[in-house]
Amino acid sequence: MSENTASLYDQLGGEAAVNAAVDIFYRKVLSDHRINRFFDNTDIEKQAAKQKSFLTMAFGGPNNYTGTDMRQAHEHLVKKLGLDDSHFDAVMEDLTDTLLELNVPQNLIDQVAAIAESTRNDVLNR
Amino acid sequence: MSTIQLDEHKVDCQHGESVLDALLREDIDIPHACREGVCQSCMMRSLDGAPPAAAQKGLKDVLKHQNHFLACLCYPETDLKVSLDSPEDFYTEASVIGKKLLNPETLLLTLHCQQPLDFYAGQFVNLKRDDGLTRSYSIANNRIHSQTLIFHIRRLSGGRFSEWAHRELNIGDKLHVSDPQGFCYYLPNHPEQNLLLIGTGSGLAPLAGIISEALHHSHGGEIHLFHGSRELDGLYWIEEMQQLTQQYSNFHYTACLSQGDAPEGFASGRANDLAMRTLQNLKGWRVYLCGHPDMVNQSKRQAYLQGANLQDIYADAFHVASSTLA
C-alpha cells in the first residue's frame, strides 16, 4: 500500500504526540486505584521519563527497548507486590483511554495496543 | 569538527557525532541510557557559556540557565569545555554578624561573607566549621544582599552542627561558606506565572528568599505560601508574612498547624493538604516544595495530578544527617 508508507510514529504525530500522551497517561496511571500502589516509592520525575520511553516504543518511535530491562524493572513488583495480568490489563485500559481522549483513530489505537501488549510477558516476568 | 574537553581528556567530535558518542568512543565513562534525550542520565554542564539550544531540550529552565545540556543531543559547532561535576566546592570565609531565636527550636543566623556570593534565592550552601564538620543550609534572603546570608537553623536533638550553632557559635566567629548549589530557585522569566510555595518547619527559609526575590521583581502572578508545623512553636515569621500580605495584594499566606485545634488566624491541617484542597487546579502553576522528604514527595505527586507540569515543580527535601554518626 504505497499511499500508506508513513510510519505509525509519524501518523500519530511523533514526539509531540508522545508528550501529549504521557501527560494524560501518567496522570491516569497515578490516579488509578487498581495500580497506583506500585508507584508509591518511585521518583515521579524519573518515572515520567520511563513512561515517555515506553510510549515512544508503543507509538513505533525510536527506541532501544530490550525485554531484559522491562523484566528487571518489574521483577520485584511481580515477586513482592503481586503484579499480575489484571494490573497489566488496567494499564492497557488507561493507555487506550488516553488515545481515545486524544482522538486517535481506532486503527492506530489498535496498532499501539498491539505493541504495548507485546511487552506483557516481559513485564510479568514469564 | 570540534574538540570536547572534559577534565584532562580532549576528544575530537566529528561532524554529525554527538558529544556522548564522541566521549564513549574514547572509552570515557559517561552515565547514559536512552541516547534520545529522554532519560537525562547523560546530563553535563558547559563551562564555555551556553551550549547548543537543541541539546537543552526538556531540561528545567534553571538547569538551562546554568548551562546544563544532554550529551546525547549535543552536536557542537565549536569547541566545548564540559564538566560532569556539580559546582565545585569553593569556600569563602564568613563571620557571624547576627544570632537570634525565631522560635524555641530555630535560630536565625546572619553571616557576612568576605566575597560577594552569586546566588539565587532558594539555593543552599554548605556551612563548614574549622574542624571540617559540614552541613547544608538554605539561604533565606534574596540576592540583592550578596555579601549577607541569612539561615534558619533548626536545632535537632543530637545534631552536631545545629546544637553547636545554637549553643556555642558567637557573633564574630568564622565559618566557611561554599558556592551556592541547588536548583530550587526563582528566575524572573515568567512574571505572570502563579506560584505555590509549601514549606514545613525551617523549609520556610528558601521559600522566604524566593518570595522576597519574586516580589522584588514585581512578580505579577498570584503567590500562595503555606507554611506548616505540628504546633505553634514550630512556626515563625508569622507577622512578617502577614505584613507582606498587606503590602502586596497578590501575596497570600496561610499558617498551618497539623496538631490539635488551630487558634484564630491559623488553618488546621497539614500545609500540603490545605494547599492542594485550596488550589485544586495547578495547571500552569510553578510549585516550590521545601521541608520534610515525605511531604515533598507526596506533594510533588499531588501537584502533578492536579495539573502542574513536572518541569514546573521545584523541590528541596531536607534530609537530616544521621545523628548516630558519632
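qc> Helices of chain B lie at 19-25, 61-65, 160-167, 204-216, 238-247, 271-278, 293-305.
qc> done
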